[in-house]
Amino acid sequence: MSPRGTIRAGGNPLSLWRAVRSGEVRPRLAAECWPLIEAGYRAVLAAAAGERAVYGLNTGFGKLALVRVPADRLAELQINLVRSHQAGVGEPLCAPVVRLALALKLASLAHGASGVQPAVCRLLEAMLERDLLPVIPAQGSVGASGDLAPLAHLAAVLIGEGEARFAGERLPGAVALARAGLAPVTLGPKEGLALLNGTQISTALALDALFALEPVFAAGLVVGAASVDAATGSDTPFDPRIQALRGHPGQIAVAAVLRALMAGSAIRRSHLEGDPRVQDPYCLRCQPQVAGACLDLLHQVAATLEREADGVTDNPLVFPDSGEVLSGGNFHAEPVAFAADQMALAIAELGNIAQRRCALLCDPARTGLPAFLVREPGLRSGFMVAEIASAALASENRQKAAPASIDTIPTSIDQEDHVSMAAHAARRLVPMVDNLARIVAIEALMAAQGIELRAPLETSPRLRLFLEAVRAVVPALHEDRPLSPDIEAVTRLVRDGTIAAVLEAEERATLFGARP
Question: How many CB atoms within 10 Å of residue 417?
């Protein structure tokens, strides 16, 4: 049984969503949420019993909002909504994203402003507890009015329809619930709309990418420092006085990490005197400025997603104190779309500068090392085509980084005439992180080889840990061999945090805040 986390009506840290994503915790609502939920539910029942037309309670949806639905057909209205909106297409979302989506929906409902009955929230809790995950097609959302199609597939399981994965099997929703010892809910007024309206899929996709990126970012700093040493570059550009004069916190943090990683390098000491080079190429020298700017951007992204995860993105919203049900636009996922676009820019730029270091390390004119980092170049090609692969990956990420948030297309007969494309923006991110991880892995192989070619001079104690991690899975390249298995082996070290672990816990906390 996994330990339990607590979801509150606001104030939830990103560390909670990280633990939900991994399955480390199975969250439940805090006790103080239940009175809020009950009050919102009573307000909806009162509104539904009244004579006034209230969007989503007793009217149609979208362009059909002017169509009034009789009181005796309100339950049918909600069922029809869930069924009709299951128009998602494409491959199913992965389990970590679906876990996040379930938990984020629960967090939104916890405020009581959506007006759902407590039974809906209890079923969401139970599904998370049992890891019963709806099958949700990845495509079909334009990011307003919320993530309608994918969330309809999530909601379908709550009413005993759709499909879900449970205990390793893909099952009809009703069967999955029964095997988990659960019963479907009967939707009341507005409840189908409350489940479908929201940004939880887009936000889950963006959070998944943010959490996947962090170990890759940290590994990139370790490998970047190793490349400086392999190229007999200077650590002078990382001097804290230089960073302080500009003042950007990300730049200051990155430079401090790079200095610490290179401290005590005999390779660096060997060229402190008499080195004719005055300055290194930008890909070595400007790492604090580039990676630091990316880090500042990621901190902004994290803050946006933390707020979005805590917010209510339903429509209309219920205010039990006054009994009002107000229509608004909180379902519009523009903040998530912007955050995802910012993350895409950072991922692409980290790959761009890492790829330039790969190219540098292969160039004997700039490093004094053998061409393509292999003895007897010409007879052997060494890392020649690995460098080309890094260029291909960097180019692909540049193409993927084109902003999605500026795209829009009118839907629902122009009622929903401006949309965010947040789901598109967020869904492309993990493939971009995968590309970046492979670029970093290729650079890691080259940097390790370059440092070893400097023997008998040794790198720093911290970077020797990096070398040991790489050599534990891939031997040095003395004779040409297929490099794809080597790249994939080191990519796993980049993704799983093995290379990032060269950084001390305090350094990781500085880079990524209080998040573990």
Answer: 12
59: which strand partners? 68
CA angle 54, 333, 154 (to 5 degrees): 70
Of residues 431, 437, 268, 440, the one with CA closest to residue 340: 431
- Tokens 């001097």 — which residue? 239
Catalytic center residues: 55
φ, ψ of residue 465 to 5 degrees: the values are: -65, -40
How many helices (H) and strands (E) are present in the chain, helices listed first?
Answer: 22, 9
Per residue in 238-259, pLDDT (tens digit) is 999 999 999 999 999 999 999 9
Residue 139, sorted as left (phi over 0), alpha (psi -120 to 50) or beta, turns out to be: beta
| pLDDT tens per residue across span 255-296 | 999 999 999 999 998 877 766 666 899 999 999 999 999 999
DSSP 64: G
Question: Is the preceding omega at residue 145 within 30 degrees of 0, hence cis?
Answer: yes
pLDDT value for 69: 76
* 145 touches 191 (CB < 8 A): no
Q: Cα torsion at 394, 395, 398, 404 (round to 10°)?
A: -120
Q: How far apart (Å, rounded) are the C-alpha atoms in residues 359 and 376?
A: 19
